Amino acid sequence: SKAEMGHTCRGTINLATANITVEDSCNFIISNGGAQTYHLKASSEVERQRWVTALELAKAKAVKMLEESDDSGDESVSQTDKTELQNTLRILSSKVEDLSTCNDLIAKHGTALQRSLSELEALRLPPDSTDKIKQVNERATLFRITSNAMINVSPHPEDSTVGKAPTSMLSTVSPQACRDFMLLAQTHGKKWQKSLQQERDQRIRLEETLEQLAKQHNHLERAFRGATVLPASTPGTGGSGKDLCCPAKGDLSDEDDDNNEFFDAPEIFPMPDVMGHKRTGSNISGTSSDISLDEQYKHQVEDTKKEKRTRIPYKPNYSLNLWSIMKNCIGKELSKIPMPVNFNEPLSMLQRLTEDLEYHELLDRAARCESSLEQLCYVAAFTVSSYSTTVFRTSKPFNPLLGETFELDRLEENGYRSLCEQVSHHPPAAAHHADSKNGWTLRQEIKITSKFRGKYLSIMPLGTIHCVFHSSGNHYTWKKVTTTVHNIIVGKLWIDQSGEIEIVNHRTGDKCILKFVPYSYFSRDVARKVTGEVMDPSGKVHFVLLGTWDEKMDCYKVQLGTGDNGAEARPRAHEAEDSRVLLWKRNPLPKYAENMYYFSELALTLNAPENGTAPTDSRRRPDQRLMENGRWDEANAEKQRLEEKQRLSRKRREAEAARATEDGKAGLSDRGIPPRGPPKALTPLCPPGTPYDPYKPLWFERKKDPVTQELAHVYKGGYWESKEKQDWSLCPDIF
User: Fold this and answer.
1) Residues of the chain with CATH 2.40.160.120
2) How many other C-beta atoms can be found within 10 angstroms of the C-beta atom of residue 61?
3) How far apart are CA 410 and CA 434, in angstroms?
4) pLDDT at position 380, please?
5) Alpha helix (H) residue ranges in 360-518
6) Prior bond of 675 cis (ω within 30°)
7) pLDDT beyond 60 at 686
C-alpha cells in the first residue's frame, strides 16, 4: 500500500511496462527490460499461478489506465487553471440540463403526435386526402428514427411497417438512456471537482514550501555576506578565504537546517589548497603562487602540533546521479571503477585504516590485565569499536596511490605512533603498523575486495590483524567482517556489518567468537547487535559479551553451576546484572558532524597539515586537499592527473622489467648457459651489474608470518629515523 512505501518498500517496477515470465514450477520473474529484475519464488505451483494471474490482471489494468491518461493527458495539462476548469464544469452542467429538457420535450411532443395521428385515422376523409395522410406518416417515421438515434432505443421488431410505426414506436419510447447519461455526467463531474480540489490543495502546499525555501535562501545569503570575520588570505596560503569555511553561495547542503552553524565557521583555521613537495616537471593544478609548496606547508603547520583542529570545511551540495555511474558496474571490482570525488570523503583508505586506533585506550587497559581471558574481552571490544565510525559514513575514501603513506604520531599525547603504506595497487593492499609505549603492537595487511550487486555494495576486507602484548607475550589474531552499503539506487544509503570474527590467543589457546547480526526488517531484535563468548582452550565459556557495534559493548562474567557446564551457565550471565562491566562506549560525534562527512574527533584531525611528514603522506595529496576545501571540480581534474601519472609509472616499470629480462637472457647466452623456461613477468633474471629492481614497498617487506603461515607485509623499520633526519631521498614522486 502507499502507506508502506516510505519504510518497507525496497523498490518498484511499473507494471504497465513490466515483463512477467514463468521460470519453472515455483519461480517467476518480473523485469522492466532494464536494470530492475525481481526473481520471485512461491511455495507451490498453485500459489505461483495465483500470483502470476493477479499480476497479469493488474498489468492489464495498468496498461488501460496508461492509455487513458495518454489520451486525456494533453487536455488535463491545458486545463490546469482553476478558473478554466470551473467554467468548463459549469458549461457541461448546463448542457446536461438542456439535454434533460430536450428529453422531456421529445416525450411530450411524441405523445401529442401519437394523439393527433389517432384522431386523424378516426375521421372520414375524402379519397384525395390519402396522399396527405401518407405524407404525415412518413414525417412521423423520420421523427421516430431521429428520436431513436438520440435516445438510443432500438425499435420494436413488430413495428417494421410504416403504418404502425409511429403509434407503436412512440408508445414504447423510454427516456432511460438520456437519464443514464445525465446521471453519469453528473457523477464524473463530482469526481472532476474533487480532483480539482486536491490539485488546488497540493499547489497551495507547494507554494508554502517554496516560500519557506526562499526565506531560508535569503537568510543564508545575508549570513554569507555578513561573515566577514574570516582571516584574510595571505600570499602563503595559496587560496582564498571563502574556500576555508564553507561552500560558496548556492553550494550549501539542503540538510543544513540549523543556520546558526554558519557563524561558527570562522573558528576553522586556514589550510593550504594543495600540499606537497615542489618537484621538477610536476605542475599541480590549482596553484598560481610563486612561493614554493614547501614554504606554504611550513606556513600552515607551525601551530598544528599544539592544538588539534575540530572543524573542516563544510561538505558542499553537489548533485550527481549515482545510478548513472554505477549502472554499468554491476558485478565489477569497485577499485577498478573510475569514480569522481563526489562520492568520496576527504580521507584516504590509509587514514580510514588508522581510525581503528580511535579507541586505543582499550588496548592500554588490556595490556594491564593479568588474566588472559579478561584481556581477551578488551581486545574483542577494541575489534568491535573499529566499526563504530562507519554507521553514518556512506562515502568512500580515496584509493591510495602505490607507495602512498600515512603516519600518525601521537607518542606524546596517547603513547602510540602508527604508519600505513599502500604496498599493492591491483589488488589494492595496505600495510599498517602501530607501536605503543603502553605495551602493545598492532599490525595488519588489508586487501579490500568489493562487488557492486545492483541494490547494494559488498566490501570484504581480506587479511589478518595481529595484536601482541609485550609483557605477557600474548599474540592475538582476527579478521574483519563484511560491510554492506544498502540502497545504492533508491532511498537513503545505510551501512550494515555482518559475519563472525574469531579472535585467537596463540600463546594460551583462548578464543572469542563475535557474531555481527545482520539487520532484518522482520526482526524484533535490537539493530546492529553483536554477541560474543570468551572461552578457554577446552571450550568452557567464562565471559559473555553483548552490545552493538555502533554504541557500546558490555561484558558479563559467567557464573558456572555445579556441573561446570558453560552451555548451561550462559543464560545466567545476563541475569547477573551485578557482574556487568562496560567495556567500551562510543564517543559522541562533534557538533554539526552531519555537515562534515560525519567525521569523528580523530577523523577531523587526520588530514590536518603536519610538518616533517614524508612527501608521500596522504596529507600532501593534492586532489584530496582540493576536495576538503570544497573545490571538487579541480579535485576531479587533479585526480585524473594523478591516476594517469600512476599508470605511466606502472608501464615504465613493466618496460624496464622486460628490458632487464632480455638483458639477463643475453648475459646467460654469452656465458653459454641456456635459460630455463620462460621468465616470469616483473621478476626478471638479472645478471650482476644490472641496476633494475622490481617495485618493492619502501617501509614494509613481505615475509611469511610464523603464527598464521601467511605471506604478509611487515614493517622493516627506518621510517621514524628518516623523519628525525628529514631524509626522504628514497621516497618516490607520486604526487
Assistant:
1) 328-559+573-638
2) 12
3) 10
4) 96
5) 361-367, 372-385
6) no
7) no
Q: Which whole number is the average pLDDT over 452-467?
A: 86
User: Alpha carbon of 367 to those of 360, 375, 408, 465, 543: distances in Å?
Assistant: 11, 7, 21, 17, 18
- Nearest-angstrom CA–CA distance, 161 and 134: 13
Task: Give the C-alpha separation, 147 to 161, whole Å.
Answer: 17
Question: Are 638 and 285 in contact, with CB atoms under 8 Å apart?
Answer: yes
pTM: 0.57
AA identity, residue 210: L
Q: Dihedrals φ, ψ of 495, to 5°?
A: -115, 145
pLDDT greater than 50 at residue 153: no
Distance CA 165, CA 178 (A): 22
* Long-range Cβ pairs for the range 324-327 (8 Å, 24+): 326/452, 326/488, 326/489, 327/35
CB atoms within 10 A of CB 165: 20
pLDDT: is 194 or 130 the higher one? 194
Residues in the chain: 735
Q: Which tens digit of pLDDT belongs to each residue from 526-579?
A: 889 999 999 999 999 999 999 999 999 999 998 765 444 544 445 454 456 777
**How far apart are the C-alpha atoms of 421 and 481, rounded to whole Å?**
22
Torsion over CA of 522, 525, 527 and 529, rounded to 10 degrees?
-130
- All CATH 2.30.29.30 domain ranges of the chain, comma separated, are 15-64
Whole-angstrom distance, CA of residue 632 vs CA of residue 638: 10
Whether 528 contacts 549, CB under 8 Å? yes
Angle at 422 between CA 418 and CA 424, to 5 degrees: 145
SS3 readout for 238-265: CCCHHHCCCCCCCCCCCCCCCHHHHHHH
The secondary structure element, H or E, covering residue 475 is strand 475-478
Summarize pLDDT for 443-459 with one digit per residue, the tens: 999 998 887 776 788 88
Name every residue whose Cβ is closer than 8 Å to that of residue 690 and which is 6 or more positions away in sequence: 660, 663, 664
- For residues 284 and 33, give the distance between their C-alpha atoms in angstroms, rounded to a whole number: 45
CA distances from 645 to 405, 623, 641, 649 (A): 17, 13, 6, 6
The stretch 238-262 carries a mean pLDDT of 36
227 Ramachandran zone, left/alpha/beta (phi>0; psi -120 to 50): beta
With pLDDT > 70 as the criterion, what percentage of the chain qualifies?
Answer: 69
Q: How far apart, in whole angstroms, are the C-alpha atoms of residue 297 and residue 278?
A: 11
Check: CATH 2.40.160.120 for 328-559+573-638? yes
Fill in the amino acid letter for 365. Answer: R
DSSP 617: B
Q: Is the separation of the CB atoms in 423 and 703 below 8 Å?
A: no
DSSP 8-state secondary structure symbol assigned to residue 671: T
- Decide which of 3.30.43.10, 3.40.640.10, 2.30.29.30, 3.10.450.700 is the CATH code for 15-64: 2.30.29.30
**Can you read off the three cell numbers belonging to residue 490?**
533508491
In the beta sheet, which residues pair with residue 405?
421, 617
Count of CB atoms within 10 A of residue 15's CB? 20
Distance CA 223, CA 262 (A): 7
**Cβ-contact 632, 247 below 8 angstroms:** no
What pLDDT, in 10s, does the model give residues 157-170?
Answer: 444 444 444 444 43
Residue 509 C-alpha cell reads as 589457546
Q: Is 527 exposed, middle or buried (0-12, 13-18, 19+ CB in 10 A)?
A: middle
Q: CA–CA separation, 378 vs 555, rounded Å?
A: 9
